[in-house]
Hints:
By secondary structure, the chain is an all-alpha fold. Helices cover about 85% and strands about 0% of the residues. It has helices at about 1-20, 25-50.
Amino acid sequence: MGIIIFLFSYFGTWLDENHPSQKLSYNTIFVMIGVGLALYNVIRQVNEINKTK
């Protein structure tokens, strides 16, 4: 979970540094996408565990 969020944060920071925009922050957008994907992955794994029991 942490790795996914870190990678999306790193990519967002890289975009902010190389393609600056005054209207939006790429880092914030990509961190939110990373958190969403990480939570989806955790929920999917918990559902898989519950199915096997």
